[in-house]
Structure formats: C-alpha cells, structure tokens
Design brief:
By secondary structure, the protein is α+β, with helices and mostly antiparallel strands. It has 2 domains: 50 residues; 205 residues, no CATH class. It contains 9 helices and 10 strands. Strands 3-4-5-9-8-7-6 form a 7-stranded antiparallel β-sheet, with helices on both faces. The protein has a 3-stranded antiparallel β-sheet with strand order 1-2-10. The termini are far apart.
Length: 338
C-alpha cells in the first residue's frame, strides 16, 4: 500500500513537472547574494580611505613646498642676519676688552702721576721749606715779571665779630675778636685800622704797642708793620721781606725808574696784554699805584722817588688771606723819607 501510494504520488508529480518544463527559473543562493553586497560596501570604504590619505599627503607636500621654497626666499632670515650684525658692535662697546681697559686705566694713572709730579715740583719753592726761591733778590725787570698779577685762588679768613678784620689780624693788633669796636670809641676796628688809627685804644696807629715803623734809608721810604713780624733783607736793601704766620710773607722790592715812566706806562711795558681796569688804580697822598686783580700785589710810584715799589702779599699754600687788611695798612702808611 505504501508502494502504491508512492507510485501514485510520483506520477502526479511527474505530470506537474512536465507541465512546467516549458519555463525554467534559476535563483541565486541567498548566502552568495549577501556576501557580494558586503564586498561592495568594503570596496567603497577602502576607496574613500585611500582618497583621504592621498589628499592629506598632497596637503603635506604643498605645505612643505611652501615652507622650504617660497618662505625660504623671504626676508625673515635676512632680517635676523642684519640684526645680529648690528648687535655685534654694541656688545663690544658695552663690554670693553678688559686688557684694553686696564691699559687705559694704567695710562690714565701715569698721566695723573705726571701731573701730580709737576704740581709738586711747582710747589717745592714755597716758603714752607725753601723761602729764597720765592723771594726776589733784586729790582730788575725779570723779578717783577715773575710776579705776574694773575688772580690767585683766595679763601676768606675767619672773622668772628664780622667787623672786617680777621681773627688773626685782631690777635696781632691786640683787639677783641668778639667785639667790632674793641676800644668803645664808636668807631669799628676795621675803620680805625684803615685810617691809621689805633683800634685797641686812643690815638693814632703808632700808639698801639703792637705796631712799629720800618725805615729803609737806602731807598728813602718807611711804613708801619706789626711788632711780632720779623723782617730781613734779601740780597740788599732793595728787597725786604716781613715774615707772617702760617709761612706767609710780605715783600717790598725797589726798582729803578730810569726812564721816568708813569705807573701806567711802566705796568703796560712789564705786562703786555694786561689791560688796566679802573678798579686796579690806586691813589694815596701823592702816590699813584696799580693793584693786581686779586689785590695781593701793588705797584707804587711817588714823584719824589726815583724808584717804583712792588709790594706783594704771598699767601703761600694756605690760600687764606689772614692779613689782607694789615697788608693794605702797610701800603697806606708808606711814605717817602728825605
């Protein structure tokens, strides 16, 4: 029964197959179809990735070309080179060669030492240790020209009572350094000394026990001077010095006026190119005179004398005019003796 059924079924299926034999349909397996679709998608992704990598490489190549070729020809490296060349001299100027600097310092020290030696040599004749080289020994022209009336560096002396007289002068005169009118006569000490009156008491200046009169009989003149100052002649009566305190001195030189020149003519001949200002001219009791610009040298002439007198106040190395008023008092008191 089973066989019959099978035969019947087979015969039935055969008829159906025969009827359909005329149309043949081929179908692709589903597994094969899916694998092809997947492979297509992978190929597209790979292509896109390759294109992306290529684009990146092209951009990198272009950037390298621009940096090394185009930018390499630009001006920036040149600017850096010029800057370095310009900075080099600044470094040299800012940081000088120490060897050269030491040489320059040594040279400057040698120059300074030479200048100091010259100054020391010029100051050696100062009266502190060697008096005679500073003191003229005769009245010829050369001695006067050595006393060229160029201004000295002058420092004011102490004046405690501000009366015009220095403390050193008041000690010499015997007046009070703290009282401008020592004798109480209503005249200040300076005015009395200037007019040859005694600032320490009554009467004229010679009544002061501290003042003496010097007379030079060889050249016929006299003047007042402080008693405590020692005097001596140097090479003859034509050159006399009065020794002061602090190694200062006052010197008087008598020089023949054989051509009978006026004081102005004589001065201009001795000091060519030194004009005479009105402040330098001096007149006193028949005398005519000319002062140096610093008033430390005075040239005097009297019609009754055949000489011109040069009176010099040498302030030495102290440069302090301790006795300038007594110096002018000596000039004011100078007179011709017959």
């Amino acid at each position: 029964m089973t066989d019959n059924n099978k035969n019947t079924s087979t015969s039935g299926m055969g008829l159906s197959a025969l009827k359909k034999a005329e149309v043949v349909i081929h179908t692709m397996p589903k597994n094969f179809l899916n694998s092809q679709i997947s492979k297509t998608k992978d190929s597209k992704s790979t292509g896109i990735l390759i294109l992306g990598i290529g684009a990146v490489l092209l951009i990198a190549l272009f950037a390298g070309f621009y940096y090394f070729i185009v930018k390499g020809d630009g001006s920036e490296p040149v600017v850096e080179t010029e800057t370095s060349e310009q900075e080099a001299p600044r470094e040299v100027n800012t940081n000088p060669d120490p060897i050269r600097q030491n040489n320059q310092q040594t040279l400057q020290e040698e120059v300074d030492q030479e200048v100091a030696d010259v100054v020391e040599t010029e100051e050696e004749p100062v009266i502190i240790e060697q008096e005679e080289p500073l003191i003229a020994t005769s009245g010829d022209d050369s001695d006067v020209k050595e006393s060229n009336p160029s201004p000295n560096i002058v420092k004011p002396a102490n004046d405690s009572d501000q009366d015009g007289l220095s403390d050193a002068e008041e000690k010499v005169l015997g007046t009070n350094i703290l009282n401008s009118d020592s004798d109480g006569d209503s005249f200040d000490d300076f005015s009395e000394l200037k007019n040859l009156y005694n600032p320490a008491g009554e009467g004229q200046l010679l009544t002061n026990s501290n003042i003496r009169k010097y007379t030079n009989s060889s050249y016929n003149y006299s003047l007042y001077y402080p008693l405590q100052w020692k005097w001596e002649t140097i090479g003859g009566d034509d050159s006399v010095i009065f020794k002061l305190e602090n190694n200062q001195f006052i010197q008087i030189i008598a020089q023949a006026n054989e051509e009978k020149q006026t004081i102005e003519e004589w001065y201009l001949e001795q000091f060519t190119g030194q004009p005479i200002t009105p402040e330098q001219k001096l007149y006193k009791k028949g005398w005519t005179g000319i002062k140096s610009q610093d008033s430390l040298i005075v040239y005097l002439m009297h019609p009754a004398a055949s000489h011109i007198f040069t009176i010099t106040y040498n302030i030495g190395i102290t440069s302090v005019t301790d006795y300038k008023n007594i110096f002018m008092m000596m000039i004011e008191s100078m007179a011709i003796t017959n």
